[in-house]
Amino acid sequence: MSQNPPIIRPDLARAHVPADQRREGQPTIGMVSLGCPKALVDSERILTRLRAEGYAISPDYKGADAVIVNTCGFLDSARAESLEAIGEALNENGRVIVTGCLGAEPEYITGAHPKVMAVTGPHQYESVLDAVHLAVPPSPDPFIDLLPASGVRLTPRHFSYLKISEGCDHKCKFCIIPDMRGRLQSRPAKAVLREAEKLVEAGVKELLIISQDTSAYGTDWKGREEKFPILSLARDLGSLGAWVRMHYVYPYPHVRELIPAMAEGLILPYLDIPFQHAHQDVLKRMARPAASARTLDEIAAWRRDCPEIVLRSTFIVGYPGETEEEFQTLLDWMDEAQLERVGAFRYENVKGARSNDLPDHVPEEMKEERYARFMEKAQAISEAKLAAKVGQRLEVIVDEVDAEGATCRTKADAPEIDGNLFIDEGFEGLKPGDIVTVEVDEAGEYDLWGSRV
Q1: What is the pLDDT of residues 259-318, one digit of tens each?
Q2: Assigned CATH for 274-387
Q3: Phi, psi of 99 (to 5 degrees)
Q4: Which residues are part of a known binding site for [4Fe-4S] cluster?
Q5: Which residues are known binding-site members?
Q6: CA 356, 361, 363, 367 torsion-angle sign
Q7: Domain 393-452 top-level CATH class
Q8: Cα 203 from Cα 184, distance rounded (Å)
Q9: Which compartment or compartments is the protein found in (predicted)?
Q10: 3-class SS at 185?
Q11: Cα–Cα distance, 219 to 222 (Å, whole number)
Q12: In angstroms, how far apart are the furthest CA atoms of the chain?
Protein backbone atom coordinates (compact mmCIF):
# COMPACT_ATOMS: atom_id res chain seq x y z
CA MET A 1 0.00 0.00 0.00
CA SER A 2 1.50 3.32 -1.00
CA GLN A 3 2.22 6.00 1.57
CA ASN A 4 1.06 9.58 1.29
CA PRO A 5 3.92 11.59 -0.26
CA PRO A 6 5.46 14.10 2.14
CA ILE A 7 4.64 17.16 0.06
CA ILE A 8 1.47 17.50 -2.01
CA ARG A 9 0.58 20.53 -4.08
CA PRO A 10 -3.21 20.86 -3.67
CA ASP A 11 -3.30 23.56 -6.35
CA LEU A 12 -2.15 20.96 -8.90
CA ALA A 13 -4.70 18.31 -8.03
CA ARG A 14 -6.88 16.85 -10.80
CA ALA A 15 -10.47 16.04 -10.06
CA HIS A 16 -11.88 12.64 -10.91
CA VAL A 17 -14.97 12.87 -13.08
CA PRO A 18 -17.47 10.06 -12.52
CA ALA A 19 -19.08 8.43 -15.52
CA ASP A 20 -22.75 8.89 -16.32
CA GLN A 21 -24.84 6.36 -18.19
CA ARG A 22 -25.57 8.07 -21.48
CA ARG A 23 -28.95 7.73 -23.11
CA GLU A 24 -29.21 7.77 -26.89
CA GLY A 25 -28.76 11.25 -28.30
CA GLN A 26 -27.78 12.78 -24.96
CA PRO A 27 -25.17 15.58 -25.18
CA THR A 28 -22.05 14.81 -23.12
CA ILE A 29 -19.52 17.09 -21.46
CA GLY A 30 -16.09 16.29 -20.03
CA MET A 31 -14.37 18.22 -17.25
CA VAL A 32 -10.73 18.71 -16.28
CA SER A 33 -10.60 20.46 -12.91
CA LEU A 34 -7.31 21.98 -11.80
CA GLY A 35 -6.47 24.09 -8.79
CA CYS A 36 -7.46 24.25 -5.14
CA PRO A 37 -10.59 22.75 -3.54
CA LYS A 38 -12.39 26.07 -4.10
CA ALA A 39 -12.01 25.52 -7.84
CA LEU A 40 -13.20 21.94 -7.41
CA VAL A 41 -16.43 23.26 -5.88
CA ASP A 42 -16.86 25.55 -8.89
CA SER A 43 -16.46 22.51 -11.16
CA GLU A 44 -19.10 20.63 -9.18
CA ARG A 45 -21.52 23.54 -9.51
CA ILE A 46 -20.98 23.76 -13.26
CA LEU A 47 -21.51 20.03 -13.74
CA THR A 48 -24.57 20.06 -11.48
CA ARG A 49 -26.16 22.81 -13.59
CA LEU A 50 -25.31 20.96 -16.81
CA ARG A 51 -26.59 17.66 -15.42
CA ALA A 52 -29.86 19.37 -14.50
CA GLU A 53 -30.15 20.56 -18.11
CA GLY A 54 -29.85 17.01 -19.43
CA TYR A 55 -26.14 16.74 -20.19
CA ALA A 56 -24.27 13.53 -19.39
CA ILE A 57 -20.77 13.62 -17.89
CA SER A 58 -17.92 11.85 -19.64
CA PRO A 59 -14.91 10.52 -17.70
CA ASP A 60 -12.69 10.69 -20.79
CA TYR A 61 -12.00 12.94 -23.76
CA LYS A 62 -13.26 10.66 -26.51
CA GLY A 63 -16.71 10.24 -25.01
CA ALA A 64 -17.34 13.99 -24.70
CA ASP A 65 -18.94 16.35 -27.20
CA ALA A 66 -16.89 19.13 -25.59
CA VAL A 67 -14.50 19.50 -22.66
CA ILE A 68 -14.42 22.20 -19.97
CA VAL A 69 -10.99 22.94 -18.47
CA ASN A 70 -11.24 24.72 -15.10
CA THR A 71 -7.86 26.38 -14.73
CA CYS A 72 -5.58 27.60 -11.94
CA GLY A 73 -3.69 30.89 -12.33
CA PHE A 74 -2.16 31.53 -8.94
CA LEU A 75 1.48 30.54 -9.55
CA ASP A 76 3.49 30.50 -12.77
CA SER A 77 3.90 26.72 -12.45
CA ALA A 78 0.12 26.33 -12.10
CA ARG A 79 -0.46 28.61 -15.10
CA ALA A 80 1.91 26.46 -17.14
CA GLU A 81 0.07 23.31 -16.08
CA SER A 82 -3.24 24.90 -17.03
CA LEU A 83 -1.96 25.70 -20.52
CA GLU A 84 -0.65 22.14 -20.80
CA ALA A 85 -4.05 20.73 -19.77
CA ILE A 86 -5.81 22.92 -22.34
CA GLY A 87 -3.41 21.71 -25.02
CA GLU A 88 -3.98 18.10 -24.04
CA ALA A 89 -7.76 18.54 -24.20
CA LEU A 90 -7.47 20.19 -27.61
CA ASN A 91 -5.31 17.34 -28.93
CA GLU A 92 -7.56 14.62 -27.50
CA ASN A 93 -10.97 16.20 -28.13
CA GLY A 94 -10.63 19.43 -30.08
CA ARG A 95 -13.66 21.21 -28.61
CA VAL A 96 -12.53 23.02 -25.46
CA ILE A 97 -14.11 25.67 -23.22
CA VAL A 98 -11.82 27.30 -20.64
CA THR A 99 -12.91 28.74 -17.30
CA GLY A 100 -11.43 29.40 -13.86
CA CYS A 101 -8.79 31.73 -12.49
CA LEU A 102 -6.60 31.78 -15.60
CA GLY A 103 -9.71 32.66 -17.58
CA ALA A 104 -9.36 36.18 -16.17
CA GLU A 105 -6.60 36.55 -18.81
CA PRO A 106 -8.30 35.42 -22.04
CA GLU A 107 -5.56 36.85 -24.29
CA TYR A 108 -2.94 34.80 -22.45
CA ILE A 109 -4.93 31.62 -23.14
CA THR A 110 -5.90 32.37 -26.73
CA GLY A 111 -2.35 33.47 -27.47
CA ALA A 112 -1.15 29.97 -26.61
CA HIS A 113 -4.26 28.11 -27.81
CA PRO A 114 -6.22 30.12 -30.39
CA LYS A 115 -8.53 27.18 -31.14
CA VAL A 116 -10.34 27.18 -27.77
CA MET A 117 -14.06 27.74 -28.24
CA ALA A 118 -14.59 30.16 -25.34
CA VAL A 119 -12.82 31.59 -22.29
CA THR A 120 -14.64 32.66 -19.12
CA GLY A 121 -13.28 33.89 -15.78
CA PRO A 122 -13.59 32.44 -12.27
CA HIS A 123 -17.05 31.65 -10.86
CA GLN A 124 -18.77 32.93 -14.04
CA TYR A 125 -21.24 30.06 -14.07
CA GLU A 126 -23.74 31.62 -16.47
CA SER A 127 -21.01 32.42 -19.01
CA VAL A 128 -19.75 28.83 -18.89
CA LEU A 129 -23.27 27.51 -19.44
CA ASP A 130 -23.82 29.89 -22.36
CA ALA A 131 -20.57 28.69 -23.94
CA VAL A 132 -21.60 25.05 -23.50
CA HIS A 133 -25.04 25.73 -24.97
CA LEU A 134 -23.43 27.25 -28.08
CA ALA A 135 -20.93 24.42 -28.48
CA VAL A 136 -23.28 21.54 -27.57
CA PRO A 137 -26.99 22.45 -27.53
CA PRO A 138 -28.93 20.87 -24.64
CA SER A 139 -31.42 18.09 -25.27
CA PRO A 140 -33.08 17.29 -21.94
CA ASP A 141 -35.49 14.47 -21.24
CA PRO A 142 -37.30 15.31 -17.97
CA PHE A 143 -38.57 11.75 -17.62
CA ILE A 144 -35.09 10.22 -17.66
CA ASP A 145 -32.54 12.88 -16.64
CA LEU A 146 -32.72 12.78 -12.85
CA LEU A 147 -30.33 14.92 -10.77
CA PRO A 148 -29.09 13.58 -7.42
CA ALA A 149 -30.36 15.63 -4.47
CA SER A 150 -26.79 16.56 -3.52
CA GLY A 151 -25.84 17.53 -7.07
CA VAL A 152 -22.79 16.29 -8.98
CA ARG A 153 -19.74 15.78 -6.79
CA LEU A 154 -16.15 15.14 -7.82
CA THR A 155 -15.06 13.91 -4.39
CA PRO A 156 -15.78 10.48 -2.89
CA ARG A 157 -19.28 10.03 -1.49
CA HIS A 158 -18.22 10.29 2.15
CA PHE A 159 -16.61 13.76 2.16
CA SER A 160 -17.37 17.03 0.44
CA TYR A 161 -15.97 20.55 0.20
CA LEU A 162 -18.40 23.25 1.29
CA LYS A 163 -17.54 26.73 0.03
CA ILE A 164 -18.98 29.43 2.27
CA SER A 165 -17.71 32.58 0.57
CA GLU A 166 -15.88 33.86 -2.48
CA GLY A 167 -13.19 36.53 -2.86
CA CYS A 168 -10.87 38.18 -0.35
CA ASP A 169 -10.35 41.67 1.11
CA HIS A 170 -6.64 41.24 1.92
CA LYS A 171 -3.90 42.88 -0.13
CA CYS A 172 -1.04 40.40 0.28
CA LYS A 173 1.67 41.46 -2.17
CA PHE A 174 2.37 37.96 -3.44
CA CYS A 175 -1.27 37.13 -4.18
CA ILE A 176 -3.57 38.07 -7.08
CA ILE A 177 -6.65 36.18 -5.84
CA PRO A 178 -8.55 39.42 -5.01
CA ASP A 179 -7.89 40.63 -8.57
CA MET A 180 -9.18 37.38 -10.05
CA ARG A 181 -12.04 36.59 -7.69
CA GLY A 182 -12.95 39.99 -6.28
CA ARG A 183 -13.70 41.18 -2.77
CA LEU A 184 -15.24 39.03 -0.06
CA GLN A 185 -18.78 37.83 -0.83
CA SER A 186 -20.21 35.55 1.84
CA ARG A 187 -23.02 33.13 1.05
CA PRO A 188 -26.15 33.45 3.20
CA ALA A 189 -25.93 31.22 6.27
CA LYS A 190 -29.27 29.59 5.44
CA ALA A 191 -28.00 28.60 1.99
CA VAL A 192 -24.79 27.15 3.44
CA LEU A 193 -26.70 25.16 6.05
CA ARG A 194 -29.25 23.92 3.52
CA GLU A 195 -26.46 22.64 1.28
CA ALA A 196 -24.71 21.04 4.26
CA GLU A 197 -27.92 19.32 5.36
CA LYS A 198 -28.45 17.88 1.86
CA LEU A 199 -24.89 16.60 1.78
CA VAL A 200 -25.23 14.90 5.16
CA GLU A 201 -28.57 13.41 4.16
CA ALA A 202 -26.86 12.02 1.04
CA GLY A 203 -24.29 10.21 3.16
CA VAL A 204 -21.45 12.70 3.52
CA LYS A 205 -19.54 12.05 6.76
CA GLU A 206 -17.08 14.94 6.57
CA LEU A 207 -17.61 18.57 5.54
CA LEU A 208 -14.48 20.49 4.57
CA ILE A 209 -15.19 24.21 5.00
CA ILE A 210 -13.36 26.31 2.44
CA SER A 211 -13.17 29.89 1.16
CA GLN A 212 -10.46 32.44 0.48
CA ASP A 213 -10.75 33.68 4.09
CA THR A 214 -12.97 31.46 6.23
CA SER A 215 -12.63 33.42 9.48
CA ALA A 216 -13.87 36.59 7.73
CA TYR A 217 -17.13 34.87 6.72
CA GLY A 218 -20.09 37.26 7.00
CA THR A 219 -18.07 40.37 7.86
CA ASP A 220 -19.06 41.82 4.47
CA TRP A 221 -22.74 41.91 5.47
CA LYS A 222 -24.02 45.38 6.26
CA GLY A 223 -26.15 45.72 9.38
CA ARG A 224 -25.32 42.22 10.62
CA GLU A 225 -26.35 41.36 14.17
CA GLU A 226 -23.34 39.15 14.86
CA LYS A 227 -19.84 40.62 14.70
CA PHE A 228 -18.22 37.37 13.52
CA PRO A 229 -20.82 35.11 11.83
CA ILE A 230 -18.33 32.26 11.35
CA LEU A 231 -18.69 31.44 15.05
CA SER A 232 -22.40 30.61 14.91
CA LEU A 233 -22.08 29.01 11.46
CA ALA A 234 -19.42 26.63 12.76
CA ARG A 235 -21.65 25.57 15.64
CA ASP A 236 -24.67 25.14 13.36
CA LEU A 237 -22.63 22.98 10.98
CA GLY A 238 -21.32 20.99 13.93
CA SER A 239 -24.86 20.13 14.97
CA LEU A 240 -25.46 18.11 11.76
CA GLY A 241 -23.54 15.06 12.97
CA ALA A 242 -20.70 15.06 10.41
CA TRP A 243 -17.04 15.83 10.90
CA VAL A 244 -16.53 19.56 10.22
CA ARG A 245 -13.01 20.63 9.22
CA MET A 246 -12.01 24.30 8.96
CA HIS A 247 -9.67 25.34 6.14
CA TYR A 248 -8.03 28.67 5.18
CA VAL A 249 -8.59 30.35 8.53
CA TYR A 250 -6.90 33.73 8.69
CA PRO A 251 -5.43 34.21 12.21
CA TYR A 252 -7.73 36.96 13.49
CA PRO A 253 -8.08 37.29 17.29
CA HIS A 254 -11.67 35.99 17.17
CA VAL A 255 -10.40 32.60 15.95
CA ARG A 256 -9.83 31.79 19.65
CA GLU A 257 -13.63 31.74 20.00
CA LEU A 258 -13.78 28.72 17.69
CA ILE A 259 -11.68 26.65 20.09
CA PRO A 260 -14.50 25.90 22.61
CA ALA A 261 -16.54 24.31 19.79
CA MET A 262 -13.56 22.06 19.10
CA ALA A 263 -13.13 21.18 22.78
CA GLU A 264 -16.84 20.26 22.89
CA GLY A 265 -16.50 17.99 19.86
CA LEU A 266 -18.83 20.05 17.65
CA ILE A 267 -16.16 20.70 15.03
CA LEU A 268 -12.88 18.88 14.48
CA PRO A 269 -9.90 20.08 16.54
CA TYR A 270 -8.10 21.14 13.37
CA LEU A 271 -7.19 24.56 12.02
CA ASP A 272 -5.65 25.25 8.62
CA ILE A 273 -4.00 28.67 9.01
CA PRO A 274 -1.66 30.09 6.32
CA PHE A 275 0.94 31.83 8.49
CA GLN A 276 3.29 32.30 5.46
CA HIS A 277 6.33 33.41 7.53
CA ALA A 278 7.44 34.30 11.05
CA HIS A 279 9.85 37.22 10.71
CA GLN A 280 8.07 40.53 11.14
CA ASP A 281 10.01 42.28 8.37
CA VAL A 282 9.18 39.56 5.84
CA LEU A 283 5.52 39.68 6.90
CA LYS A 284 5.52 43.45 6.42
CA ARG A 285 6.98 43.06 2.93
CA MET A 286 4.19 40.56 2.28
CA ALA A 287 1.63 43.11 3.60
CA ARG A 288 0.51 40.61 6.23
CA PRO A 289 0.10 41.14 10.00
CA ALA A 290 3.57 41.16 11.61
CA ALA A 291 2.86 39.68 15.04
CA SER A 292 4.57 36.30 15.13
CA ALA A 293 5.28 36.53 18.88
CA ARG A 294 1.61 37.10 19.65
CA THR A 295 0.80 34.25 17.29
CA LEU A 296 2.86 31.91 19.49
CA ASP A 297 0.84 33.12 22.48
CA GLU A 298 -2.39 32.41 20.59
CA ILE A 299 -1.22 28.91 19.65
CA ALA A 300 -0.36 28.21 23.30
CA ALA A 301 -3.83 29.40 24.34
CA TRP A 302 -5.53 27.22 21.71
CA ARG A 303 -3.63 24.18 22.93
CA ARG A 304 -4.40 24.99 26.54
CA ASP A 305 -8.14 25.17 25.85
CA CYS A 306 -8.19 22.21 23.42
CA PRO A 307 -5.16 19.91 23.90
CA GLU A 308 -6.21 17.75 20.92
CA ILE A 309 -5.99 20.62 18.42
CA VAL A 310 -3.89 20.05 15.29
CA LEU A 311 -2.52 22.98 13.30
CA ARG A 312 -1.79 22.93 9.58
CA SER A 313 -0.05 25.78 7.82
CA THR A 314 1.83 26.75 4.68
CA PHE A 315 4.88 28.99 4.40
CA ILE A 316 6.77 30.78 1.64
CA VAL A 317 10.55 30.43 1.56
CA GLY A 318 12.78 32.68 -0.51
CA TYR A 319 10.44 35.68 -0.49
CA PRO A 320 12.09 38.77 -2.04
CA GLY A 321 14.57 40.27 0.38
CA GLU A 322 14.56 37.28 2.74
CA THR A 323 17.93 37.23 4.51
CA GLU A 324 19.57 34.26 6.18
CA GLU A 325 18.77 35.84 9.55
CA GLU A 326 15.08 36.18 8.62
CA PHE A 327 14.96 32.59 7.41
CA GLN A 328 16.62 31.39 10.61
CA THR A 329 13.92 33.24 12.57
CA LEU A 330 11.34 31.14 10.69
CA LEU A 331 13.16 27.92 11.64
CA ASP A 332 13.40 29.03 15.28
CA TRP A 333 9.71 29.93 15.27
CA MET A 334 8.91 26.45 13.96
CA ASP A 335 10.81 24.96 16.88
CA GLU A 336 8.58 26.90 19.25
CA ALA A 337 5.27 26.54 17.39
CA GLN A 338 5.62 22.78 16.80
CA LEU A 339 2.97 22.74 14.07
CA GLU A 340 1.72 19.26 13.27
CA ARG A 341 1.06 19.64 9.54
CA VAL A 342 3.28 21.92 7.46
CA GLY A 343 3.86 22.60 3.78
CA ALA A 344 5.94 25.19 1.95
CA PHE A 345 6.21 26.95 -1.39
CA ARG A 346 9.34 28.32 -2.97
CA TYR A 347 8.49 31.91 -3.84
CA GLU A 348 7.49 32.46 -7.47
CA ASN A 349 6.70 35.67 -9.28
CA VAL A 350 3.07 35.80 -10.33
CA LYS A 351 1.97 38.05 -13.15
CA GLY A 352 0.29 41.12 -11.64
CA ALA A 353 1.54 40.57 -8.08
CA ARG A 354 3.11 43.57 -6.35
CA SER A 355 5.86 41.40 -4.87
CA ASN A 356 7.39 41.10 -8.34
CA ASP A 357 8.67 44.67 -8.00
CA LEU A 358 10.33 44.18 -4.61
CA PRO A 359 14.15 44.43 -4.54
CA ASP A 360 16.65 41.68 -3.69
CA HIS A 361 15.00 38.60 -5.14
CA VAL A 362 16.47 35.41 -3.72
CA PRO A 363 18.47 33.23 -6.18
CA GLU A 364 16.79 29.97 -7.18
CA GLU A 365 19.53 27.78 -5.73
CA MET A 366 19.19 29.55 -2.38
CA LYS A 367 15.41 29.03 -2.45
CA GLU A 368 15.98 25.30 -3.00
CA GLU A 369 18.48 25.11 -0.16
CA ARG A 370 16.19 26.93 2.27
CA TYR A 371 13.21 24.88 1.16
CA ALA A 372 15.12 21.68 1.90
CA ARG A 373 16.17 22.95 5.35
CA PHE A 374 12.63 24.08 6.16
CA MET A 375 11.03 20.78 5.13
CA GLU A 376 13.69 18.84 7.07
CA LYS A 377 12.65 20.79 10.17
CA ALA A 378 8.93 20.25 9.48
CA GLN A 379 9.49 16.55 8.86
CA ALA A 380 11.34 16.09 12.15
CA ILE A 381 8.50 17.80 14.05
CA SER A 382 5.90 15.67 12.27
CA GLU A 383 7.82 12.47 12.98
CA ALA A 384 8.10 13.26 16.70
CA LYS A 385 4.43 14.25 16.96
CA LEU A 386 3.30 11.04 15.27
CA ALA A 387 5.63 8.84 17.35
CA ALA A 388 3.86 10.16 20.45
CA LYS A 389 0.58 8.72 19.12
CA VAL A 390 1.78 5.11 19.21
CA GLY A 391 -0.39 3.25 21.69
CA GLN A 392 -3.22 5.78 21.51
CA ARG A 393 -6.76 4.94 20.37
CA LEU A 394 -8.05 7.22 17.62
CA GLU A 395 -11.19 7.57 15.54
CA VAL A 396 -10.48 7.32 11.81
CA ILE A 397 -12.53 7.69 8.66
CA VAL A 398 -11.99 5.12 5.91
CA ASP A 399 -11.13 6.59 2.49
CA GLU A 400 -10.27 3.51 0.46
CA VAL A 401 -10.17 -0.27 0.81
CA ASP A 402 -8.23 -2.62 -1.46
CA ALA A 403 -6.69 -6.08 -1.25
CA GLU A 404 -3.76 -4.83 0.84
CA GLY A 405 -5.69 -2.93 3.50
CA ALA A 406 -7.66 0.19 4.36
CA THR A 407 -6.42 3.72 3.87
CA CYS A 408 -7.88 5.98 6.54
CA ARG A 409 -7.49 9.44 8.04
CA THR A 410 -7.55 10.59 11.65
CA LYS A 411 -9.24 13.80 12.75
CA ALA A 412 -5.82 15.40 12.32
CA ASP A 413 -5.69 14.66 8.58
CA ALA A 414 -7.43 16.45 5.72
CA PRO A 415 -7.78 14.55 2.43
CA GLU A 416 -5.10 15.03 -0.23
CA ILE A 417 -2.80 17.27 1.84
CA ASP A 418 -2.14 15.46 5.14
CA GLY A 419 -1.10 11.97 6.18
CA ASN A 420 -2.93 8.65 6.35
CA LEU A 421 -3.47 5.85 8.82
CA PHE A 422 -3.19 2.39 7.29
CA ILE A 423 -4.94 -0.73 8.57
CA ASP A 424 -3.11 -3.78 7.18
CA GLU A 425 -4.97 -6.50 9.12
CA GLY A 426 -8.59 -6.99 10.14
CA PHE A 427 -9.89 -4.57 7.52
CA GLU A 428 -12.38 -7.00 6.02
CA GLY A 429 -15.86 -5.54 5.84
CA LEU A 430 -14.70 -1.91 5.96
CA LYS A 431 -15.91 0.48 3.28
CA PRO A 432 -15.25 4.14 2.43
CA GLY A 433 -17.00 6.45 4.86
CA ASP A 434 -16.90 4.08 7.83
CA ILE A 435 -15.69 5.70 11.05
CA VAL A 436 -13.93 3.21 13.32
CA THR A 437 -11.61 3.20 16.33
CA VAL A 438 -8.04 2.01 15.94
CA GLU A 439 -5.02 1.62 18.18
CA VAL A 440 -1.86 3.12 16.69
CA ASP A 441 0.87 0.48 16.31
CA GLU A 442 3.51 2.28 14.29
CA ALA A 443 4.43 5.80 13.14
CA GLY A 444 6.43 7.15 10.22
CA GLU A 445 7.37 10.65 9.11
CA TYR A 446 3.88 11.55 7.92
CA ASP A 447 1.70 8.44 8.30
CA LEU A 448 0.45 6.02 10.96
CA TRP A 449 -0.36 2.32 11.03
CA GLY A 450 -2.96 0.84 13.36
CA SER A 451 -5.24 -2.04 14.27
CA ARG A 452 -9.01 -2.01 14.76
CA VAL A 453 -10.11 -2.08 18.36
Answers
A1: 999 999 999 999 999 999 999 999 999 998 766 668 999 999 999 999 999 999 999 999
A2: 3.30.750.200
A3: -140, -175
A4: 36, 72, 101, 168, 172, 175
A5: 36, 72, 101, 168, 172, 175
A6: negative
A7: mainly beta
A8: 30
A9: Cytoplasm
A10: strand
A11: 8
A12: 68
